[in-house]
Amino acid sequence: MTARARWRRMVGWLAVAGLACSLWAANLVICPKCGWETDGNAAVCLHCGAAMPVVKVEPAVPPPAAATGGVPTVAFQQFPAVVSDLALKAARADRQHADECLTNGLPAVAYAYYGNALALSRLVRREGLSASAGQSLIDGLAQSRQQLIYTPRTCTTCGGTGARTIRVQTLAGDKSPAATMPLPFSDSTVCLTCSGRGVVTTSRLANEMRVLIAQGAREFELREQADGRVTSGRVWLSPELLVLLNVRAQVLLRTGRPTPCASCMGLGQQDCNRCKGAGRIKCTGVGCVNGQITVADNNAMSAVNNKKPLTHKEVCPICQGSSLMACPDCLSVGTVPCKKCDGTGRNAICPECGGQGWEPCQKCQGTGQLGKVVCPVCQGEKVVFCPKCHGEGCSAR
Which candidate in 30, 239, 338, 393 could, as Cys together with 264 as Cys, close a disulfide (CB 3.0–4.6 Å)? Predict the structure, then answer.
């Protein structure tokens, strides 16, 4: 064999070896006996039946994560223990502040603290909370609301003395001890309206409560700022906790404390227009004048005119002599359901996101990447805050 022939044969074998390597990479192998191309997963050659070599597939190495410009991309699911511990610490601090405000007569500030603690508790793992922890927060919120609704006022019947006040009209020449006393005077009988306490518990007007809640929310915000906290929506939390939360975790917070109805500040009620919040209106009974009606006695005729029956005064059966009756619109409560939120205290569900608070990123179409680069809009999280409700799930009507 000449040198030229040997060279051609060597080049041929090198070409076959290169083809075999490329086919190996493509999961195809050359039968060492007949040279037939066969699937690398086959145990024997499909052409001649000879045993095929085993193809070893190396596991793919994932590419390194792209840089995000210093923006934290920590997913909430990766650090549940850290997030839960920080959220539990913040919720306990808010609960302590709320109890102190409730004891010190600041129910509006306590109302805000309890609401913030309830939102933070949504990030706490269930094993980190006692069975009664959530219920105690709900009870505290209800107690602060109760103190907001009802307030003690001076009894108007006795003027705060707690004793029954008697008004006496004396006649000329009356020498009784009562005639010499200043009018009106009080005897030793206990006032029936306040039971001798001098004060009565009455409900505040809805407009008055709105002002108190707004003032309490402002005081709460100032205290949270002084403690170095920051906001995610309307929820106040520590900066250390905020950097660990992704979009879905922040939505979980924001939907727990959304912006309340602007008309009723979350109360779900407003003052009755008919009675102006008093709960009672002037008696509409036929012939009622100052709580009394004139009744004719057909069995007794007047001595002057025998065709005209005698009349006498009786207590009005509708107002029972008080000249006031229960308001038919609010049933003497003084408030009616808020017309803007239908009594729920919350704004309508956001039509953009359906109340979930987030939507797929439009920039990357929910993939989290633009080619080989992390999406700069969603930072690779695939979702963003709803642009209409900003993650609260509710939007103003």
Answer: 338
Three-state DSSP class for residue 94: helix
Beta carbons of 325 and 285 less than 8 angstroms apart = yes
Report yes or no: 215 and 108 within 8 Å, Cβ to Cβ: yes
Q: For residue 27, what are its two tokens?
A: 């999961």
**Is the CB of residue 84 less than 8 Å from the CB of residue 51?**
no
Crossing angle, helix 206-226 and helix 107-120, to 10 degrees?
60
At 47, list the tokens.
């052409």
Q: Cβ atoms within 10 A of the Cβ of 263, count?
A: 18
pLDDT, averaged per 10 consecutive residues of the chain (397 residues), comes to 63 57 52 65 68 52 39 46 91 94 94 95 80 85 88 74 60 48 55 75 83 94 95 94 92 92 86 86 88 77 61 84 85 86 90 91 90 90 92 82
Q: At what angle do helices 80-103 and 107-120 cross, to 10 degrees?
A: 170
Chain-centre distance of CA 29, in angstroms? Answer: 64
DSSP 8-state secondary structure symbol assigned to residue 315: E
- Residue among 348, 203, 221 at smallest CA distance from 271: 203
Are residues 91 and 117 in contact, defined by beta-carbon separation less than 8 angstroms?
yes
Using alpha carbons, select from 202, 187, 100, 110 the residue that is nearest to residue 150.
202
Contact 94, 120 (CB under 8 A): yes
Does the bond joining 360 to the residue before it have cis omega, within 30 degrees of 0? Answer: no
| Contact call for residues 114 and 144 (beta carbons, < 8 A) | yes
Q: What is the pLDDT of residue 2?
A: 63
Respond yes or no on whether the N-terminal peptide bond of residue 53 is cis (omega within 30° of 0): no
Angle at 153 between CA 150 and CA 155, to 5 degrees: 130
pTM of this structure: 0.66
Write down the domain spans for the chain. 1-58, 73-163+188-257, 354-397
**CA separation (Å) from 50 to 31, 34, 37, 45, 158?**
7, 9, 12, 5, 114
Tokens for 342, please give them.
């239908």
DSSP assignment of 343-366:
TSSBPEEPTTTTTSSEEE-TTTTT
CA dist 175 and 171 (Å) reads 9
